[in-house]
Design brief:
Strand content: 15-25%
Radius of gyration: 23 Å
Number of helices: 10
Distance between the termini: 69 Å
Largest sheet: 8 strands, mixed
Number of strands: 12
Helix content: 40-55%
Strand order of the largest sheet: 4-3-5-10-7-11-9-8
Shape: globular
Length: 290
């Protein structure tokens, strides 16, 4: 009887210890990375094992980022940053909405015709950035995948244009955006103020994001972008564009998921406006671009 009790106590203790080790391992892997670096297959890198940033990594980075010099931009240089509005030609009501908003905000901009997934797209360009099961869905005329292909190519073409024209950065906004106006601070002034709050290592500045991970403030109105989806509005630099071209050739992720993955693996210095600068307008429910 005594032997059975000792055995039961031993097994119970062993089970508890095993559970503690599992909890410790999981906690360390996902949050600290002290004992075991968080290594994860990166879908946008042909499933290559890469270090996935933990909460501890982000917290340490926030301290550094908070103390970096700010990115300062003069009024003249700010005026020279191009504002490109991605819009399908078959969506005149969206163009009209953006025209009113941007005119009221006194912002110079250019409408850029988005790639329409309903059209026949250049096969070489499609195969450059869409591969595997995504390419199969595209060739099967899947409506969702066709729309996503158009959306991906629209953003990639603008990033190529940014580099080709020698721009340092460009503001890219989709045509279903609602510019958030503050009563005391006009949209244009607020955007420039946020530019001047960015740490000087920034490469991507998200004006909004869906399902973004909680993050720390590193400037007035600027948070870390730890990942999230949607490409409603963002500011891209030349350096970011060059990184995107390399990662996008894997062809495994939609453009917003690609931005998300690059942020989560620490491949890009990305920040997020908080509160957001743009939201979805009442035209967003009938998304036409993907």
């Amino acid at each position: 009887m005594t032997y059975c009790r000792v055995l039961a106590i031993y097994l119970s203790a062993r089970t508890v210890c095993s559970l503690c080790v599992v909890v410790l391992f999981v906690t360390d892997t996902f949050f600290t990375g002290v004992l075991v670096p968080r290594v994860w297959p990166a879908p946008h890198r042909h499933m290559r094992l890469m270090r996935h940033l933990t909460s501890n990594d982000w917290d340490k980075a926030a301290i550094v980022q908070s103390n970096l010099p700010r990115y300062t931009i003069s009024q003249r240089r700010f005026e020279e940053v191009p504002v490109w509005i991605l819009s399908l030609q078959r969506s005149p009501e969206r163009r009209a909405s953006m025209l009113v908003q941007l005119t009221e905000a006194n912002i110079s901009f250019e409408f850029v015709n988005a790639v329409d997934g309903q059209d026949l797209l250049p096969e070489e360009e499609v195969k450059e950035y869409i591969k595997g099961s995504r390419l199969q869905l595209y060739h099967s005329a899947d409506p969702y995948m066709r729309a996503k292909a158009g959306c991906d190519l629209s953003h990639l073409r603008l990033l190529h244009r940014l580099v080709a024209e020698g721009q340092d950065a460009a503001i890219i906004i989709e045509d279903d955006a609602l510019l958030l106006q503050e009563e005391a601070v006009p949209f244009k002034q607020r955007l420039r103020r946020l530019f001047n709050q960015l740490p000087n290592d920034w490469e991507l500045f998200m004006l909004n994001s869906c399902f973004s991970f909680p993050s720390k403030l590193v400037g007035d109105g600027v948070r870390q972008f730890r990942g999230g989806v949607c490409t409603l509005g963002y500011v891209a630099t030349r350096g970011f564009a060059l990184k995107v071209f390399q990662a996008a050739r894997t062809g495994t992720r939609n453009i917003d998921n690609l931005f998300d993955m690059m942020a989560q693996f620490g491949e890009v210095n990305a920040y997020l406006a908080q509160p957001p600068v743009v939201l979805w307008s009442n035209l967003s429910f009938s998304s036409t671009m993907g």
